[in-house]
Every structure is written in C-alpha cells, then in structure tokens.
Recover the amino acids of this structure.
C-alpha cells in the first residue's frame, strides 16, 4: 500500500522536475582562453548589454582582432524546431550587438554543439544562413577557429 501511495504522489502530487539544459563543454577553448588571458590577449566571462532590449548577455570568452568577438558555445537541441528557435534568438541578439556597437565594433561568435551526434546537414545550412544574415559568425570548423583565435587575438 505504501508503494502505491508513493507512486500516486509521484504521478499526481509532485511538481514535475525541471531538467536544466546541459552546457556545451569545450575544454580546448578553456585551455586556449586561459592562456590568452594570462598573455592579456583575451578575456573570460564578459558581459555586454544587448541594445534595445537592455538585457545583459554574458559569454565565457572574448577576444579582440579589430573588433570585440563575443564567443558563445551553444548546445543545440536534437529537435530541429528547437534548434532553429535557439538559432533565431541568438541571431537577433547578435544582430543588435553588432548593429549598435557602443563605441567598439562587436560580433557574436557561436561555437555550436549538438545533442544529436549527426545533425542533418540541412539544419546546419539553415543555421549558417540565419546567423550570416544577422552578422553572427557560426563556427563550422572548430580547429580552424582555434587557429584563428590563436593568430589574431591581441590586447
């Protein structure tokens, strides 16, 4: 009987647990930016205000190469609709950050990860087009991006 009461509580009497979305872990970027920070060529945990919306936007990495690049690792949902919704939100935020530079040219750089091991190429193509239309860099070649940051980041 006690087992039935427990089961009923679980099914009816308790609030559903909210599962927090996992963050994209990129140890290679952590190592790179930690070193670049020590060399005064990059920053960690940078916050900017999104113009018009007046909301704070924080990224774990940022570097200068003629503009301030705000680097945001993003884990995209396996469901295409949810991945595209996240893409649209980030693209809009990135466009506002880019269009209203606040004294310093800025660009959002999205480093994607996917819950699905093999996201459809059609999804990645759509994401690339949306980000490009909104002046947001979408990293498709991680190794090339790491080389670019290493070469271009300066104080």
């Amino acid at each position: 009987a006690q087992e039935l009461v427990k089961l009923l509580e679980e099914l009816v009497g308790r609030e559903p647990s909210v599962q927090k979305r996992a963050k994209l872990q990129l140890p290679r970027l952590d190592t790179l930016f930690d070193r670049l920070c020590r060399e005064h060529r990059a920053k960690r945990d940078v916050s900017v205000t999104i113009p018009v919306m007046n909301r704070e936007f924080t990224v774990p990495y940022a570097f200068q190469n003629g503009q301030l690049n705000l680097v945001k690792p993003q884990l995209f949902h396996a469901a295409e609709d949810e991945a595209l919704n996240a893409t649209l939100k980030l693209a809009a935020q990135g466009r506002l950050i880019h269009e209203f530079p606040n004294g310093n040219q800025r660009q959002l750089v999205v480093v994607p990860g996917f819950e699905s091991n093999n996201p459809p190429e059609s999804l990645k193509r759509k994401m690339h087009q949306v980000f490009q239309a909104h002046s947001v860099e979408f990293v498709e070649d991680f190794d090339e991006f790491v080389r670019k940051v290493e070469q271009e980041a300066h104080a």
Summary: The chain has five helices and five strands. Confidence is low (pLDDT under 50) at residues 4-8, 12-20. Helices lie at 2-13, 27-38, 80-99, 121-133, 142-152. The first helix runs from residue 2 to 13.
